[in-house]
Amino acid sequence: MKNILKSLGFKKNWVYEVIVTTEYNGIAHAAPMGVSSSDLRKILVSVYKSAETCRNISETGFFAVNFTNDMSLFYSSLHEKKKIKYIQPKGLVISVLGKADAFVEARVTSEKDADEKIIFTAEVIGFAKNGKRKIQLINRAESLALEALIKASKIKATKDSVKRKHLLDELRYIAFAASKTAPDSSHARMASKLSSLFRHQPKDTSL
Ligand SMILES: Cc1cc2nc3c(=O)[nH]c(=O)nc-3n(C[C@H](O)[C@H](O)[C@H](O)COP(=O)(O)O)c2cc1C
Description:
By secondary structure, the chain is an alpha+beta fold. It has helices at residues 4-8, 52-60, 71-79, 141-157, 161-181, 186-196; strands at 16-24, 27-36, 42-48, 62-67, 86-87, 96-97, 102-114, 117-129. It folds into two domains: 4-129, Pnp Oxidase, Chain A (Roll), CATH 2.30.110; 141-196. The mean pLDDT is 95. The structure holds flavin mononucleotide.
């Protein structure tokens, strides 16, 4: 199978927000997850052991990655699971979301116990598009960089020490999240730079 992840625009170790579908005992299941790839060939998903998705992947060894930028689909896959319509495009084994734009099917090659989670590594075994829909990958770093800019300007504007501490904690978290979801990206660098503008201010006490 040609390098699907590369042609979709995956960047190494960036995390993409998707909806993972699985099947267990003939019942399809959907849940939002973050996926990544360290070599643009294998795909990784790290799933809480408490999730139904984790049980399904462990039991069957398969999952499908559904690409969509429709937030209502993310919402439904968390809170309105019964409303979800599944389809089975030609060549795919697992049911996927009728409203998603494209699908990657994956077969688990190894799994690693990581405390509360299991990290599944999988090989890509199938790909399908849903008609002519545009495929847009969702990575959080751009929104995080924007959020960091907003937090930093609020920190500068306020004199209230409690508010400043709260904003600074949020800014630090945002910088951390950006570096996790898009390592070595300009967005992560920007968030980190903004956070370090205020680094001389104490972490745990009111500023
Ligand atoms: C955008 C987004 C990304 C998520 N990524 C993950 C993830 O990578 N791993 C995980 O275990 N849960 C993740 N979650 C939380 C799961 O979707 C949530 O726990 C879900 O209830 C698990 O569903 P299940 O028990 O039906 O499988 C994410 C949630 C959202 C909204």
